[in-house]
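Input set for joint prediction.
Command: fold jointly, output tokens.
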Amino acid sequence: MENLVLQALSGLASASSLFLVASGLTVIFGVSRVVNFAHGSFYMLGAYLAYTLVTHLPRGHLGFWGGVIGAAVLVGLIGLAVEMLLLRRIYRAPELFQLLATFGVVLIVQELTQMIWGAQDLLGPRAPGLRGSAEILGLRFPLYELFLIGVGPVVLGLLVLLFRRTRWGTLVRAATQDREMVGALGVNQRMLFTSVFFLGSLLAGLGGALQLPRESVNLHMDLSIITEAFVVVVVGGLGSLTGAALAALLIGELHAFGILIVPKITLVLVFLVMALVLVVRPHGLLGKPEAAARGGQGSAEPVIGPAPAALRWLALAALGLAVVVPPFLGDYAISVLTELATAVLFAASLHLIMGPGGMASFGHAAYFGLGAYGAALAAQWLGAPMLAGLALAPLAAGVFGLVFGYFCVRLSGVYAAMLTLAFAQIAWSVAFQWVEVTGGDNGILGVWPDAWAAPKLVFYYLALALCLGATLLLRRVVHAPFGYALRAQRDSALRAEAIGIDAFRIRWLGFALAAAAAGIAGGLFAYGKGSVFPTYMGIPRSVDALLMVLLGGVQTLSGPIIGALAFTGLQEQLVRLTDLWRLILGAVIVLLVLFFPQGLAGATRARWEARHGDA
Amino acid sequence: MERAIGRRHILAGAGMAALAAPGIARAQGEPIRIGEINSYSAQPAFLQPYRNAWTLAQEQVNAAGGINGRRIETVFRDDAGRPEDAVRLAGELVNAEKVTLLAGGFLSNVGLALGDFANQNKKLFVASEPLTDALVWSKGNRYTFRLRASTYMQSAMLVEEAAKLPVKRWATVAPNYEYGQSAVRWFKELLGRARPDVQFVAEQFPALGRIDAGATVQALAAANPEAIFNVTFGADLTNFVRQGSTRGLFERRRVVSLLTGEPEYLDPLGDEAPEGWIVTGYPWEQIDTPAHTPFREAYRRRWNDYPRLGSVVGYDTVMAIAALLKKSPSLETEGLVDGMAGLQFQSVLGPVQFRAIDHQSTMGAFVGRTVLKNGKGAMADWRYADGKDYLPADDVVRTLRPQA
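tokens >
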């Protein structure tokens, strides 16, 4: 009994820490709709800055708490700078484009942090006056954890006061509900956005700084917190502070008690919770349906027409090169080209649901990975030949696409995207944990092509044919009646329904089709690499796909192709050229975002249309 | 605590060394190229000292005249912790950079992916750090060799000590991935064999790098074990120790812990390092053997820092490769592989052999007790456990490894 009480208290302390980070994220999202990937980086910076300040300031209460507050304020200022220099310039870009920018920031912060503070984990001092433990029901419980349990509600209270009792807070709430209206009423939106970003970053920094007496400060803090923080925000309901508090509480306690029953549950628990909550409550625990952004309703996205002649010639020339040149290249160049081909199809498949479908997916790697596992499991357990494995790949991915998609496409916006992430993580954890069948994180080895396709060149042509075929098929689908229906329900679900389009069915089939296409890419990737690992379905790969699509431009059909080539090619080159590839890749992404806010292909089209009139 | 050396320093250092070392010029002919792949950006705490020592070893080999007059040089690649990237880079190193052999690996799955690549492409792969038993046993192949003492070996070393403890109720805590799972499995199996009277009353498997330390500690305490077997390391270990000591988990309990004596994981704990844990590790400041002392001093001179265990692994990987190259008449892979089986070389920890039976080296580890000394953790009462004494009998190994 005593143990259960203490377990509950431990859960409360974790919930409190989680809430601090999530509160900043939800405030920022509520107002600016920016999916701020760099929030975890701000959290990490808070911890590192607090470490430096606390260890350099004189010991004692002033030094410690001064250091913590100082670090939080500094992080707030860094957030302010990021908003003013970067995000402010791209608010008008297509939805989610800011995610790309903040991802660039993540990469830069990672490299700089390692340069400044070094690679070794740091252990901060404990909080003065809260070093020891209290006796609760005869068991010891750390004082600092008790303090943390108090901090969460206090911060929540202060934020609620701030939002309910000040004019600034009222404006923020108004902007959360209806951004355009607030702007129309003459409120200076710039100031509002910037100040909200400052507050949100400050909260992230505070969350990180307060971990100092509790956890080690290390370079993995950013990515380990960001997904959980997003889950809390989404489970709570986007923009809802009390929702976030409730969600943090739920997750903290489920964690604490979950490990008593199933110790390995930690891998997937938060995602199970998120999937369940979103399936039952499509807007989170306390979220309200998003007011339809007026920009989206009134003005449809640019119409996609047939490719202009010049583009066709360019594509044909590129294809010619892709066919003619490889026999003269070395094995390595050919294997890179093979990888590029799969990347193109992977990005194009995500684009189908993101662009024409109008629904982002944060978990598209699931279908890539399911295709890879489908092929690998067939090879390993059934001894299937390569072609059978490759045929099974889209089937496996497509079936799961139908199942997961059935739930995901009912939702909209970030909720839908996060539900795809939840399913992807559940699939990932099954691949990770089901060691007997999938080999766990050690993966499945020896998935090499059959003898006839073993030469790199033959396999390349096979991959090129399949990937190009599938990509062109996806392109054809967009121009087919199905594609028109898909775009219609994106631009106006109401009007589409009114003319007899079953929006749900169309989106669902589109989702499954995209999943199957990703599965083809995954199957080819598996045979190209010779092995399959859970990382194929991991969050980083889903993020890669998003980056490719966004970098190329969501609103054009060539976008994902250009984006895949640019992103994969850039990364491949940089990793070979320099140890500082993260820093440079991050900087390049940030610059591209600033100069091409519609993506590479989008910018090219804009220039083309300016010169030749609307194509 | 000395500041870890940044990458920029490494680059600058390497550049200076190239200018300042006349020994390099003495080695004639085309250099022999080694391709090295590791998760540099994902695991910098272990791999920076590793790479520093690798560079040092390479400079020493070249200053001493290289391999029969030919210099060795290394092309480093960062796989960022992704096995699929490691495979691509391996292809690049073999096909474009024309390396003679591959080496490296930190994560087990990266090691396995590279091992499988080596097997498929018939290229020698000297795995330095990956600990998984599968690398040389269930997925072992002709072209893959491993230097570091495996999960099985290190677990066996600790079981020897654990069996002597007067305790019966054990709990385990390990990161939830292959390394943690295997370590716990072997520990349970081997301890159960040595001491049929022990029972395991609780187990915790926090996600790697994301331990909820408070709840995990409380869950272990609730089972009231007499002893704990810990496999967590890095940030998880730090958080676990902090919560555990504040909550009194380690009082009146014995703790047996894998890798915790390695400076990589012990030093960040500072004066909060736990006392009296039985650990495997590397008491670098106390090992004064003719093989180790010159290494430690050379490392200090070169990098103005003390060696970590990663440094030993990096240094000895180069020394093993150099020993192989020196005795091989040609650089053709099949010959190198034959030479590698049974290869003996002088590591900084003592003489080591790559066993012909399973391609595992006999490099051992230090087993001792943790103490606090001058406000930081250290090892006491340690001994060197030679790896060759902690491997299963040959007939057992043959059943574990696919036989050609």
